[in-house]
Amino acid sequence: MKKIILNFEKKTDNFKALVQEALNMNFLDFLVSRDTFMEFKNLERITTYSRDLSIDTQNLILLDVSEKPLGIDKGIKIGLYYEMKSKQDEEFIVERASNFNFIIVKAPDWKIIPFENLIAKMHKNDTELIASVENINEAELMLKTLEIGTDGIVITPKDVNDIVELKKLLVTEFRVELIEAEVTALQNVPESERVCVDTTSLLKSGEGMLVGSTAKGFVLVHAEVFDTQFVSSRPFRVNAGDVSAYILVPSDDKDNSYRTKYLSELKGGDQVLVVNTNGGVKKVTVGRVKIETRPMLRLELEIDKQGKKIRFNYIGQNAETIRLVNSVGTPISIVDIKVGDKVLVHIGPEATHFGIKIKENIIEK
Question: What are the structural domains, with CATH classification, of the chain?
Answer without folding.
Answer: 3-169 (3.20.20.70), 174-357 (no CATH)
